[in-house]
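Dig into what follows:

_____
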Amino acid sequence: MRADPTSGVIATGRDGLGVARIEARRGQTAEVAERLRAKWGIAPPNASRWVSHGEVAIGGIGPNTWIAVHENAGNSFADSLQPLIGHCASVVDQSDAYVIVRLAGPKVREILARLVPIDVHPRSFRVGDIAQTVCGYMGVTLWRLEDGAQGDPAFEIWGGRSSAGSLHEAISHSAPESGCARQKP
C-alpha cells in the first residue's frame, strides 16, 4: 500500500532501532539513573512514561525496569550500554524482539479506539505516556508520541516480532472508513 497524504492514518514500520531492556539490580536504581543522566542528559522515568533527548528515548515499563531506544543503532546499542551501566543493572538486547509501528494522522485515535481497550483521548493518554495493553488479542505496548508537524497525534505500537503479520492485519482492518496507508521507513 502506498502512502497517501489524504489518508486518515499513516502507518510506518520502525526498523533499525537499537532497543535494550535495562533492569536495575536491588538498591542500584539511583545509580543507574545517574549514569544514564550523565550520558544522555535524561533520567529514566519511574512510571509508565517515556523521556527523550536527541536520538535516545527511555520508557518506564515496570519497577526499576526500562526500555531504552536509540535511533539507527541496531543490535550494537545494548552492547554499548553494558560498560556504561556496569554491575548496576542487567542489559538485554531487544532490537529484534519487537515489531514497532508508528501511527500518525488526524484519524489515529478513531483507529486506536477499535484496536485497544484503553482511552487514547489526549486528556487520558498524554504525550509521554506508555501503556501495556492488547491490540487485536495480542499483547502490545502503546507509546504516545509528540504530535506531528501538522499537529496530528502520533503513537507507536510495539508488539512481539512473531505477531508482526497479525498486528499489521489488525491495523489495516480497523481503518476502512478512516483510511490507513502504509509507508516504508
Summary: The mean pLDDT is 88.
